[in-house]
């Protein structure tokens, strides 16, 4: 290929569209009326560009993806003109093709990668069969095609033979996603449509795949349409970004322009609401309100109910495409005002609820007794055992291994790590929902498992149970679907505040509902969980935990099920409730930006977990700007930034895939992926070292200690072939 | 250390463990029936002796006869009797039937094939019919065929099969004389592999099989649900976009995945059908193991009853064992690596 990865640059939009979309709509007939899930969209996709399409869930972005292949799911109907313009030959209208024509277009010319790689393969057939049957269905030469497939898999850092001979369930999520990308490229398409291809993956894997997409685009001469809800993610690779809101494009322009000086109020607010590592947290604000219902889109500009600049014109007149410049249309009557009025950086007048408390770092006050104290905690799971297993050893998964951490009054600790690293297990252990197999968990000086068995009678088990609460990741399944909000919320009061009568209880619940912004509370209190939105369900779950008046709440990914624009709002609410109820939080998150937001706003700490071990803990400032452990550095690298300057540093990891947790590496568990690993890391497991000159910052890496034997040990990274580089 | 662990696991392969569990179940059933005979209130021995003396056999002779027939000697001390009983049973000696005055094994060997014949036809026809109908219903979900067949399946599924059997008997056998009302083989034709004889057998088995096909109504509902679930899967959408042929999609993608949950239930159903055969063979006077068991119960023919129950238990245990051992071939996700 002529374009090598290093001279990849964002191209200026030249005019050679490979796909032209004109007046394209997708509608569904629903009981409530016709639902328009893509509304009269116009778009040119240029040959060999990477076009990022960003929108919240339910903004119509997946419909656009499906329409490009004329693959809108029944009973949806796509109409309008989508013209494919081959380099040689007549333009083709995609929506007018017959069955044979569609078969030739799909996968051979325009191919697609879905979000659910986990479920994009037939579970009972090997990966190889998927490739063979695809080649066969399109009458391609199978041997030649399989050779190509192996080449693509190798380019994606997979071992072709191993992957091809596996069943889907035998591969990890990241491997499956890469295998799916390979499958979508096997017929050498010109356009690759990717619909949230990394949404279900961990940060590191996400970032690695994004880098791979760039390489692959150059090598296979592709045009890529990358659809996501995550603006920072595409910021790094897209040439142009289109923003969808309420089923139409509100803005489309070169990436730099969109990031630096977006013209549409929605884009500007969305950028501000996205947590990231660099921007000051005071500037992060939620977008007020929620996205419109497809059956009932507001008249005029669909964004006007949420827009701070809305006036009469916006309410009545649907904005046409105004031109910011030739390459940057925006659908807003007041785009030039928006650029002045909605500032992107210095919004310090925002009355952030807890700015004052962010000043003192509670982690410093170590002389106070901790609320919950974990000491050398181990949780080992054994694989299932039955009667006949009595004589055999079983495999042990070391979910948590030797973790010590103290959580103080009104403290906040955020655990960050990849999925499967044991962060949730650690969190559950801290609130007494999982019994550790080693070490101790103490609540105000009492070992909680001793209290439970009755050997420590200094405090009641019920008291501990009440004091340690949990808020689950998925609020939908954490609330009993057959109980009204009222019943769910009154239950803890009935149990723990016996002196309250029914009236008082209801009053208390009503005032809390109002407090968290669910007004009118009299309406919400009578609803069932399915009548609430995701954010509202999470609020109810949160209040339910708060009503126990707990000392510590473990919140397991409390915002990851919510839309991007709602996350900051939810986190603010949690921080505000902490102030009202005087509790401590133990958050679990896979997203460093969210972790930073919460920890920085509350003066808490971030703990980084890798394969069951706490490898580094410190204030967000320390973790993000002065990371000591190589794994923390990798996490920071993997967190997408909104910056314009491209992140071109080499990836600070040697392999993409996480080791098997049932058979963790010896010595330092990170040595197999660490770019700084030396011989000693293979054999010795590092203790936790205090980072010199910093309080409350510990990291479990030899490199922190300047006099350690590590520095004289031989490097192992050069000896092994570098498996992955950016 | 890890190495050791794995080699040790190999010696205790899960298949061996699973077979061990099956053997354990059989042993438990054998022991239970032993305990039952020994402990049953009213002393079986006494009851049998009384009955035989009523038939004019003197008690001492009756006692001798019974001891000869039962493989459990009531006068022996329990451990010795237990060991004797187990050895006898394992050697295939299930004792003598009191009522038929023939070895139990002989009676079972003579009747079991007939029951199996009816059962296997019923099971396989209902299974494949259920799958085919269910798949069609899913394909035209919400259409006339779907609504019609769903209501039909619900109605027919809630009618006990023996009620249906009686209806079939009344109409197809007595009123319209299309099928024989009882018996299991044609009269007047010499047994053998002749067209006449085999077709006669099928002719006699037709009604029992037909009444057991009711189960296919339920199977088709199950298959319909499974297929609809599979039709909504992402991999199906991807397969369509990849341009795979309709045949590949319907067989390798939809049917293959929808059948998986039904495979186990198919083999579990064998057990239920054995139980059903007792009633069914009575209705059709079809001399299989079900009818013999019923007679044995009426006649308090303990050796025959115990033998019959044991054979049924073993058959169900084997069916489940087969289901477990072969499931990995049907669904790779269930394949264990160790």
Give a brief outline of the structure.
The complex is a heterodimer of chains A (about 725) and B (about 350). Chain A is α/β, with parallel strands linked by helices and about 725 residues long.
Most extensive interface between two protein chains, with residue counts: A-B, 32 and 30 residues
Helix segment count of chain B?
14
Mean pLDDT of chain B: 77
Give the number of DSSP strands of chain A.
Answer: 24
**Number of helical elements of chain A:** 25
CATH names the topology of the largest domain in chain B as MetI-like fold
Count of all domains of chain B:
2
As an assembly, this protein is heterodimer
Strand content of chain B: under 5%
Describe the main β-sheet of chain B briefly.
none
Q: Can you characterise this structure?
A:
The complex is a heterodimer of chains A (726) and B (338). With 726 residues, chain A is an alpha/beta fold. Chain A is built from 25 helices and 24 strands. In chain A, the strands form 5 sheets. An 8-stranded mixed β-sheet of chain A has the order 18-19-20-15-21-22-24-23, with helices on both faces. A 6-stranded mixed β-sheet of chain A has the order 6-7-8-3-9-10, with helices on both faces. Chain A has a 4-stranded antiparallel β-sheet with strand order 2-1-4-5. The two termini of chain A are 18 Å apart. The model of chain A is unreliable at 1-13, 346-365, 385-391 and 719-726 (pLDDT under 50). With 338 residues, chain B is an all-alpha fold. In chain B, 76% of the residues lie in helices and 0% in strands. Chain B has 14 helices and no strands. Mean pLDDT of chain B is 77; it is low at 1-11. The A-B interface holds A 69, 71, 73, 103, 106-107, 112, 114, 116, 119-125, 133-134, 137-138, 167, 169, 183, 386-389, 391-393, 395, 663 and B 2, 5, 8-9, 12, 17, 20-21, 233-235, 237-245, 248, 252-253, 256-257, 260, 330-333.
């Amino acid at each position: 290929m002529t374009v090598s990865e290093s001279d990849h640059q964002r191209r200026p939009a030249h005019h050679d569209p490979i796909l032209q979309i004109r007046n394209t709509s997708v509608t569904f007939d629903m009981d409530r009326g016709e639902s328009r899930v893509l509304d009269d969209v116009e778009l040119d996709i240029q040959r060999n560009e990477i076009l990022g399409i960003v929108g919240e869930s339910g903004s119509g972005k997946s419909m656009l993806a499906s329409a490009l292949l004329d693959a809108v799911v029944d009973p949806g109907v796509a109409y309008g003109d989508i013209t494919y313009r081959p380099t040689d030959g007549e333009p083709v209208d995609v929506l007018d093709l017959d069955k044979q024509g569609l078969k030739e277009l799909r996968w051979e010319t325009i191919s697609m990668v879905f979000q659910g790689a986990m479920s994009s393969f037939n579970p009972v057939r090997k990966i190889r069969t998927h490739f063979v049957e695809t080649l066969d269905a399109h009458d391609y030469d199978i041997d030649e095609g399989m050779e190509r497939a192996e080449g693509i898999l190798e380019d994606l850092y997979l071992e072709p033979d191993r992957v091809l001979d596996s069943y889907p369930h035998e591969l990890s999520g990241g491997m499956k996603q890469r295998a799916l990308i390979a499958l979508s490229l096997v017929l050498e398409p010109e356009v690759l449509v990717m619909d949230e291809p990394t949404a279900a993956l961990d940060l590191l894997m996400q970032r690695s795949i994004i880098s791979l997409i760039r390489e692959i685009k150059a090598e296979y001469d592709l045009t890529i349409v990358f659809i996501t809800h995550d603006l920072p993610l595409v910021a790094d690779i897209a040439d142009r970004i289109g923003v969808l809101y309420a089923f139409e494009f509100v803005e489309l322009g070169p990436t730099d322009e969109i990031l630096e000086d977006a013209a549409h109020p929605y884009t500007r607010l969305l950028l501000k609401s996205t947590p990231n590592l660099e921007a000051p947290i005071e500037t992060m604000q939620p977008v007020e309100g929620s996205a419109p219902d497809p059956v009932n889109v507001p008249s005029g500009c669909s964004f006007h109910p949420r827009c701070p600049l809305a006036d009469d014109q916006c309410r009545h007149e649907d904005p046409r495409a105004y031109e910011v410049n030739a390459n940057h249309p925006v659908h807003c009557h007041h785009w030039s005002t928006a650029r002045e009025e909605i500032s992107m950086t210095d919004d310090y007048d925002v009355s952030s609820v807890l700015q004052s408390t962010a000043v003192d770092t509670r982690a410093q006050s170590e002389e106070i007794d901790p609320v919950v104290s974990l000491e050398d905690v181990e949780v080992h799971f054994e694989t299932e055992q039955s009667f006949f297993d009595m004589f055999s050893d079983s495999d042990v998964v070391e979910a948590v291994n030797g973790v010590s951490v103290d959580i103080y009054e009104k403290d906040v600790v955020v655990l960050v790590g990849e999925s499967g690293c044991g962060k949730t297990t650690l969190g559950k252990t801290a609130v007494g929902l999982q019994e550790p197999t080693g070490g101790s968990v103490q609540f105000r000086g009492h070992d909680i498992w001793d209290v439970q068995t009755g050997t420590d009678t200094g405090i009641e088990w019920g008291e501990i149970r009440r004091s340690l609460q949990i808020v689950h990741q998925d609020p939908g399944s954490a609330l009993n679907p057959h109980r009204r909000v009222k019943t769910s919320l009154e239950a803890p009061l009935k149990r723990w505040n016996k002196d309250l009568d029914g009236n008082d209880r209801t009053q208390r619940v009503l005032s809390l509902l109002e407090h968290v912004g669910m007004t009118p509370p009299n309406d919400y209190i009578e609803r069932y969980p399915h009548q609430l939105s995701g954010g509202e369900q999470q609020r109810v779950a949160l209040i339910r935990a708060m009503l126990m008046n707990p000392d510590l709440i473990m919140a397991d990914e409390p915002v990851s099920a919510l839309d991007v624009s709602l996350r900051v709002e939810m986190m603010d609410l949690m921080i505000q409730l902490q102030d009202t109820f005087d509790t401590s939080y133990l958050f679990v998150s896979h997203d460093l930006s969210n972790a930073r937001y919460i920890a920085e706003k509350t003066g808490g700490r971030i703990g980084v977990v890798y394969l069951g071990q706490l490898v580094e803990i410190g204030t967000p400032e320390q973790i993000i700007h002065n990371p000591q452990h190589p794994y923390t550095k990798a996490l920071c690298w993997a967190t997408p930034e909104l910056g314009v300057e491209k992140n071109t540093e080499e990836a600070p990891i040697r392999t993409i895939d996480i080791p098997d947790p049932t058979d963790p590496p010896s010595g330092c568990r990170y040595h197999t992926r660490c770019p700084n690993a030396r011989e000693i890391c293979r054999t010795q497991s590092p203790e936790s070292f205090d980072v010199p000159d910093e309080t409350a910052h510990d990291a479990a890496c030899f490199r922190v200690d300047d006099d350690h034997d590590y520095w004289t040990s031989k490097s192992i990274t050069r000896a092994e072939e570098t498996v992955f580089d950016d | 250390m890890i190495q050791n662990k794995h080699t040790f696991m190999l010696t205790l392969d899960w298949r061996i463990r699973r077979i061990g569990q099956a053997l354990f179940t059989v042993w438990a059933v054998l022991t239970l029936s032993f305990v039952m005979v020994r402990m049953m209130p009213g002393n079986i021995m006494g009851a049998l002796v009384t009955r035989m003396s009523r038939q004019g056999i003197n008690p001492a002779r009756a006692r001798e006869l019974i001891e000869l027939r039962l493989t459990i000697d009531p006068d022996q001390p329990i451990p010795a009797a237990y060991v004797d009983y187990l050895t006898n049973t394992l050697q295939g000696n299930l004792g003598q039937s009191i009522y038929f005055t023939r070895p139990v094994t002989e009676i079972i060997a003579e009747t079991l094939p007939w029951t199996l014949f009816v059962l296997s036809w019923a099971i396989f026809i209902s299974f494949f019919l259920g799958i085919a109908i269910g798949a069609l219903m899913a394909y035209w979900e919400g259409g006339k065929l779907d609504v019609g067949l769903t209501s039909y399946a619900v109605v027919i599924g809630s009618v006990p099969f023996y009620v249906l059997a009686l209806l079939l008997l009344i109409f197809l056998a007595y009123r319209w004389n299309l099928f024989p009302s009882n018996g299991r083989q044609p009269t007047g034709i010499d047994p053998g592999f002749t067209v006449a004889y085999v077709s006669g057998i099928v002719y006699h088995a037709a009604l029992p099989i037909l009444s057991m096909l009711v189960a296919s109504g339920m199977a088709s509902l199950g298959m319909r649900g499974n297929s609809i679930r599979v039709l909504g899967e992402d991999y199906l959408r991807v397969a369509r976009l990849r341009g795979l042929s309709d045949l590949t999609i319907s067989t390798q993608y939809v049917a293959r995945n929808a059948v998986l949950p039904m495979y186990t239930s198919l083999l579990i159903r064998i057990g239920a059908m054995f139980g059903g055969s007792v009633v069914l063979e009575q209705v059709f006077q079809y001399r299989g193991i079900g009818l013999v068991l019923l007679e044995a119960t009426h006649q308090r023919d303990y050796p025959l009853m115990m033998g019959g129950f044991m054979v049924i238990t073993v058959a169900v245990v084997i069916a489940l064992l087969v289901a477990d051992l072969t499931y990995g071939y049907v669904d790779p996700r269930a394949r264990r690596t160790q």
